[in-house]
Amino acid sequence: MAKNLDKLNVIGDRVLIYPDSGQDRTSSGLYLPPTVTEKESVQGGYVVAVGPGTPLASTEGDDDVWQASDSSKVKYIPLEIEVGDYALYLKKFAIDIKYQDEKYIIVPMSGILVVERDDDSIDLSDILK
Predict the structure, then answer these.
(1) Nearest Cα to 78, choosing from 49, 48, 53, 51?
(2) Residue range 13-41: average pLDDT?
(3) In a domain, 68, yes or no
(4) Residue 122 included in any domain
(5) What total of structural domains would you count in the chain?
(6) Residue pair 52/76 in contact by the 8 Å Cβ criterion
(7) Which residues on adjacent β-strands are paired with residue 102?
(8) Residue 97 is part of which domain span?
């Protein structure tokens, strides 16, 4: 995994996921061809970055809507997902990217089905190789 993700800013309600390699063989030991695993509609991975959330509309009643706004006044509905969570997401909502020779997935919060979270804080360097 790329060590320097500080330069990436995830926007809005999106989540950056390091995809799990997945199962390449069955429990009985049969190897599955890549075409079988690529057809799965649900995939999993570790959350490595999250956006600030969904921006809320300004309620200040400004008369000039075209005037430049102060970005420090923007308020967000925060995401329920945290860095270190293991997320199951719908593949059809996922966008594959490559950053510093590593594959990542960007998924909107609406594309995430469930997350698994440990009570203890997770060190991502222990999870990702």
Answers:
(1) 53
(2) 70
(3) yes
(4) yes
(5) 1
(6) yes
(7) 99
(8) 14-127
Radius of gyration of the chain (CA): 18
CATH classification of the domain holding 76 = 2.30.33.40
Position 37, amino acid: T
Q: Which two tokens stand for residue 20?
A: 């799990």
Please report, as a single letter, which amino acid is at residue 28. S
Closest CA to 83 of 20, 22, 15: 15
Q: Which two tokens mark 24? A: 């390449």
CB within 8 A of 20, min separation 6: which ones? 43, 44, 45, 46, 86
Q: How far apart are CA 67 and CA 9, in angstroms?
A: 25
- pLDDT tens string 67-123: 665 556 788 899 999 999 999 999 999 999 999 889 999 999 999 999 988 766 666
pTM: 0.70
- Residue 8 inside a domain? The answer is no
Residue type at 117 in one-letter notation: R
